[in-house]
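Entry 14. Structure prediction run on the chain below.
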Amino acid sequence: MKKWVISSVVGAIIVFGWQGLSWMAIGVHDKQFKYTPAQNELLNAFSTNLTDEGLYSMPSAPTKKERQDQMKNMEGKPWASVIYHKEYHANIAMRMIRAFLVDLFLVISLIYILTRGGMIPIPRRIFSASVAYGLAFFLAGQYMGHVWFDLPWHMITGDLIDNLVAWTLCGIWLGWWLNRLPMSNKQ
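Output returned:
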């Protein structure tokens, strides 16, 4: 049990640590957000005309039927997606706690998947499963945003790098740590 707790906590620290470095120190996500000198005018227009927080697709229509009809006329014309919030709250401590808890849950889940049946896979299987795990998160999440909502590559490239690097490092750790048991427990 102690081995699983240590592997989960250290794995979560590795994933969380990489995410922190990539966002705050090494600039992996620097190109993800664009700047416009018209931001004050746009924010004023949003705050004047939007009453609810949420994701707005523009142009849009109030009903599903009207949106479907409108799609026929949108081809080749500009459109936008806007995530609007009425107020900004950094609340960095709570965001970090939530992110770490998610990473911990994901590492625990990976270990559970790998060790189901009571056997510990050899290091290369743990490593390749961990990398596949990270790639699956990217494909099911951010890449699907690219597929369905045309998120530009500059928006999702950092997320691809994050998932591959974080889960590669985690896979190296888990492959080494979990295989410190006697050979009779390995497959």
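Strands lie at 54-58, 80-84.
Filed with the rest of this week's runs.
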